[in-house]
Amino acid sequence: MKLHTVRTHTSAENLPRADQLAWKIAAVATDPVPVEPDVVEMIGNRIIDNAAVAAASPPPRPGAGARAQAPAHSCQPGATVFGLSAHRRVSPDWAAWANGVAVRELDFHDTFLAADYSHPGDNIPPVLAVAQHCGLDGAALVRGLATGYEIQVDLVKGICLHEHKIDHIAHLGPSAAAGIGSALGLPIETVYQAVQQALHVTTTTRQSRKGEISSWKAYAPAFAGKMAVEAVDRVMRGEGAPSPAWEGEDGFIARLLSGPQARYQVPLPEKGEPKRAILDTYTKAHSAEYQSQALIDLARRLAPRIGDLSKVESIVIHTSHHTHYVIGTGANDPQKMDPRASRETLAHSIMYIFAVALEDRAWHHERSYAPERASRPSTIALWQKISTVEDPEWTRRYHSRDPKEKAFGGSVVVTLKGGSVLCEELAVADAHPLGARPFTRADYVTKFRALAEGIVPPTEQDRFLGTVERLTRLKADDLSGLTFAVDPAVLGTVRATGIFDWRGRVAPGLSVVSG
């Protein structure tokens, strides 16, 4: 890997293209280096992981709205949508949108945390949709996904967005555009322009993950994927992009990040170097913000030691800056302590999550967030006793570049009535590659079958998993098998209508007057 210094340049400096971050990203995307076997294996794991989460999101989940929008944009050859028949094809940008929401809304798929944070599996829906529509084979799909993961992870390692309240989808738009360009085998010039355009149109604020968190938290990455598909399409037709997007005098770094004097160090593979960044990422065993994964595991271990939870006087979680300020009491979000809060908000409250995990000694993607569960008096009482503090050592470990030292957990101090104190810590989740029980292909399959149970028929589950096993050998026509269909009754009917299915309706309260 080579570290590239990225900074603002004045227009008068006329920064050469070869020195621009977008061009360097495009060079990585267009480098035809083979994808190594362990990377192929992990790409298959993450395709299964995405499908697992999508299977668990039928109505009334927010993904139903996105899925309802997609068929209004039917297209041939088109791309598939989770839940619908593989023969029902839609425009690839709308497939990326619908599938992107489905895999994101439960906050249950893969993650990478460094200078910023991300869910690199968000690259899969747009790259797969384009591959299906354009008649690519499994090898091209794998090549594109290896690139998407590589670029997003490298940007997350080098550029912090959240300190400036910029949402992390600003790294996803460029990575998805690069992945699409890699899968299609596009020229470096085309990928260069598409990466910049995708950055420009997917830069949004972090309010989507602050305060009263709405369903847009799930829609935001899908929007970035959809914009990446459109950006590549526009550039293929001759459109350019704001350049240089990162380094320009009025560009991303100068106006939205740390300003004209800032220097960022972004690592990228050198020419001929394999793209292996997906192996730095990790998935979730629990449906909640990643920083809660180790703490859920820790709560399950700590609960038997505490015994009677009514005896708890206070619980203080010593953890990293990010955990304290994003999902802890440092966020100063009263919604994180409110039993009436949305599921999305509760998934970003470590106080709520730790209380439920202590009581139930388990975590479930639906039951743990049910309104009746959040409003249980014993849970509320315990919840209000939990707080977080930033510990400099946990912050240092969070940002460490040494994989063996990097940590996303914390230490917990439980004070019981009477004054006795219990302490325990956990650095990484059990499912983490360095955890007690790292996820393997068998664990991804188990997760898929558990989340698909009662939704996706067993024969359809088997067919999907068999398709993933043949990933690099798939022909163009086989890529449609990387989805699953369910009984329409399971999907239900979305009663609300929008612009795309308006079809001559008259808005409520209006009448049409002729003459």
Report a brief summary of the structure.
By secondary structure, the protein is an alpha+beta fold.
The number of helical runs is: 20
Radius of gyration, in Å, reads 23 Å
Question: How do the strands line up in the largest sheet?
Answer: 7-6-8-9
Which regions have little confidence, pLDDT < 50, spanning 5+ residues? 506-515
How does the helix and strand content classify structurally? alpha+beta
The multimeric state of the shown protein is single chain
Strand content: 5-15%
Describe this structure in words.
- This protein is α+β, with helices and mostly antiparallel strands and 515 residues long.
- Helices cover 42% and strands 9% of the residues.
- The strands form three sheets. Strands 7-6-8-9 form a four-stranded mixed sheet.
- Helix 4 (92-104) packs antiparallel against helix 9 and helix 7 (169-184) runs antiparallel to helix 8 (188-201).
- 52% of the residues are buried.
How are the SSEs ordered, and which strands pair?
Blueprint: E1 2-7, H1 21-29, H2 37-55, H3 63-69, E2 74-79, H4 92-104, E3 112-113, E4 117-118, H5 124-133, H6 138-158, H7 169-184, H8 188-201, H9 216-236, H10 252-256, E5 263-268, H11 293-306, E6 312-319, H12 321-327, H13 343-346, H14 350-360, H15 371-374, H16 377-383, E7 386-390, H17 392-399, E8 410-416, E9 421-426, H18 441-452, H19 458-469, H20 488-491
Parallel strand pairs: 6-7
Antiparallel strand pairs: 1-5, 3-4, 6-8, 8-9
Features:
515 residues, alpha+beta, four-stranded mixed β-sheet, two-stranded antiparallel sheet, 42% helix, globular
